[in-house]
């Protein structure tokens, strides 16, 4: 395919300075709709386009260019087809490329209606092609976007007919070419308006005369007596001073005025826009002409002198012009110009943040919806279902599909102002929206949501909240009053009851409540709720697992808890609800009574490991909930002191509508069974009336998140060896959950704020609110409603809903990345590319580029130790779960990294 310099005549002609450019290195010439490869008369190799495009129909048209008529293939795109894009490989991402596209209609369809359409390159819509005006039509661009693929698309316009294309060419240009004078225009691409070989009238020149295959058009307004042909570029002539220098064949002709007068080019432009102008001058005549240069009447260079035997160029940009008048006014000798290039400057829109893009891709994969087809959700055109402001995705509308669960991925779309998920079969708790600080409109109507959750109160910008026609139960949470901007709250047709909280009693707020069980003023008489059995029936999905070695276990899937225990507690809750006024009932004896009904004596024995506290005891221990030491997603944590003097952390759930009972029971149940030095120990619990309280051992060191990011962050005290020790500890805890405990347990919410430290900086994993046990010893995965924390969530789990231990490995990989980089998984500062820690850090760490390691660690770590930790972190966040290591493998690697760092530190001790 590579053709070295051939053509002897050419060699003589262009001399030494072209040798080496003559092969077609990096050239890509695509015959659109073609079915064979061939070599044309300029010795350029053409290939068919099948590899680069996946849609469109092909046909041939008669091309009556020149003297002969030939059949030329084209590809056209009927408008029923969505994607009309070519994906072109870019061999060298840092280089500028020339892209040339040719369009040919020639009435191939016999309709006599030439189409009009737009074309885009990457994110930029570059031009509109109107084949009524010109047929054929050629467009040419200079492009650089540091991308490995260049997407070239045809975009239909209303009543424009079917877009079509006949050829596409890509030519690499030298790095740094056409950069001079472009300083004021970052992130721009250039669209060719003119490229004139001044003083030459006999057709256009291109490859191989121009090694970069620019096409230099004849000087159309050429007047014979100005001709300067006959000059030869001398061997000592230096072309290499200019990266974009025209080839010798172009420079050896010039437009020269015979008298000391005025030389003018009048160049009409097709669009009012900003333009980039390059003028080339070569000292080919034996005198040095001097002249003043004017562009649209302004003197842009006075007394410009062309130096002999040298090529030079002048670069200009002109804003908002519609025509160009280039005038040379003689001072000495005759004015002269050798070549002119004029380009329209095309804006390349900013990229959408990679966090947003990956979240949308996950949503697209999960929903099976085809949201869009371009690389970027906002440019050149917005994806379906999405709205953008500039490069920022501000709305997402996904109604009338089967979404089932509110995924944490929605929480990654940080700039959303409007989110419409009406009629998407959502069930369960309203959650995972907490990070959407800009959200103004949230439409969750016509779903099957059952409880409010605690995320809504974080939506500080919320103006309209539409929850009508759901299955929301219980009372309306007081915390909705925190939404100061809320002016419409639609709660119609739910199963809500009780009085509306005082906090919602605002003039600015319209609340619609009709169609609920019993919602409104407190004096309302309501039906006895307990007589309506449908309300309190525990909703547990039970499935029998496949027959296996003769046993028939029952695995409980929904509700994240052993089913019998859940049923027990829920029925207990019903019991307590009915007997509200007699809440002194002791928990254990009631439970024992219920136990008889459910016949789960074996389950109950496990419960005995944790102590049951009364609410009175809890109040006394916490000194009436005096000292808050933390606040989590489910409630606040208070410092407490038991009667024996032991300090405890008391986690009280605010749980006004009985939500989250399952996760509470789940946590108690799991924690009471497991004991491990790297897992926070449950001392006991309290479940009286509506109270859900967990009593844990107290860890005075706070959480890893506090250390890394807290207001009084002690990051500096977190040396690399300490971080490794913490990582090893936490991995040991997780390893026990995955491999040591029976049943095996998947934590599901591994994150820095769930890793606590004691006085000696030993780390323990806590918060088992979302954990799930694998009841079948050999089960490889469970299908579950997706839960977790934005930024830590395994993308594969999200898209497949298949939960495995590898999801914890992913989240733990994120924790490792945080330890290495000292930053949070999602941050809304910095450049869009760095929002998502995983996407940002992975390529650096893979390349061993440790400049992204937390600044406070600089110079303190042994590189091999860092390399090991970074490698295992990167492997852990592989998108493909099967590529991730197991937690046991992670632990082994971390132990090694730790011991390498230890011996490194020891070597200093000995050395000093
Ligand atoms: C290629 O296309 C031409 C018409 O453009 C057709 O005559 C020829 O049969 C095709 N060849 C193959 C191999 O498809
Ligand atoms: C384009 O091709 C498809 C099949 O390849 C065919 O069904 C369709 O009718 C064609 N459209 C036009 C406008 O020729
Ligand atoms: C294309 O050009 C023709 C003639 O100049 C004009 O009538 C037509 O409106 C143009 N089409 C579009 C879509 O601009
Ligand atoms: C890419 O192009 C630049 C300059 O044109 C060159 O320095 C670099 O070596 C090229 N890289 C590759 C991989 O070809
Ligand atoms: C140019 O684009 C890059 C990458 O998209 C971006 O980082 C940079 O801020 C942009 N520069 C300007 C001036 O917009
Ligand atoms: C124009 O170029 C053609 C071939 O490219 C050549 O045959 C012809 O003589 C040239 N005409 C003039 C006037 O130079
Ligand atoms: C172009 O500019 C020159 C000098 O400013 C002026 O004399 C000439 O009339 C202009 N031509 C047109 C067509 O505007
Ligand atoms: C123009 O510049 C040349 C060389 O730079 C100088 O010799 C000449 O005097 C200048 N002419 C005018 C009119 O300034």
Automatic annotation (TrEMBL):
Transmembrane segments: 554-578
Highest taxon, organism lineage: Eukaryota
Binding site for ATP: 651
Domain Protein kinase: 623-905
Annotated signal peptide: 1-22
Listed PROSITE patterns: LRR, PROTEIN_KINASE_ATP, PROTEIN_KINASE_DOM, PROTEIN_KINASE_ST
Protein keywords: ATP-binding, Kinase, Leucine-rich repeat, Membrane, Nucleotide-binding, Phosphoprotein, Receptor, Repeat, Serine/threonine-protein kinase, Signal, Transferase, Transmembrane, Transmembrane helix
Protein name: Protein kinase domain-containing protein
Species the sequence originates in: Quercus lobata (Valley oak)
Gene: LOC115959526
